[in-house]
Amino acid sequence: MPSPPRVLILCTHNSARSQMAEALTRQAAQRLGVALEVHSAGTEATRVKDEAKTVMAEIGLDLDGHTSKTLWDVPDAQNFDYVVTVCDSAAEACPVYPGKTERRHYPFVDPSGGSLDRWREVRDQLKIRFDAFVQALGDGRDVPPTYIDSPAVSAQ
């Protein structure tokens, strides 16, 4: 039996958007019955922001056990089926991957420094986009290369 597709969600600090997207992608995969191995990382490691923990707890997802990490802290860092960058800086700094890895860029507004409502908006947009990502994988369809058509997403 083949191993499930491996997905890496990459952001600059692995402190907010990528952490939320990792948890939401795992939740979508479980809900939709799609086998995935999901990781997140940053081009730099810092800490998981309290606001991310707060807005994710509101929808029943606990980020307390999550830690900020770099790409090189993730198991088998060069072996992913999909690498999804969620900020422009990470997209520019993302290393080259072997031919089998499909890169996707889903840029989201950085909620840092914003109100909890802004954090909730970004969380909700991440949920929409990564639910669609998982659904496409589950259906055997190509996942879109980017999502820049939504008001809450922006190319910073």
TrEMBL record:
UniProt entry tagged with the keyword Oxidoreductase: yes
Record-listed E.C. numbers: 1.20.4.1
Domain Phosphotyrosine protein phosphatase I: 5-136
CDD domains named in the record: LMWP_ArsC
Group of enzyme by EC: oxidoreductase
GO biological process: response to arsenic-containing substance
Presence of keyword Oxidoreductase: yes
InterPro entries named among the record's database cross-references: Ptyr_pPase, Ptyr_pPase_sf
GO molecular-function term, one example from the UniProt record: arsenate reductase (glutaredoxin) activity
Annotated keywords: Arsenical resistance, Oxidoreductase
Superkingdom field: Bacteria
Name of this protein: Arsenate reductase
Protein's organism: Deinococcus humi
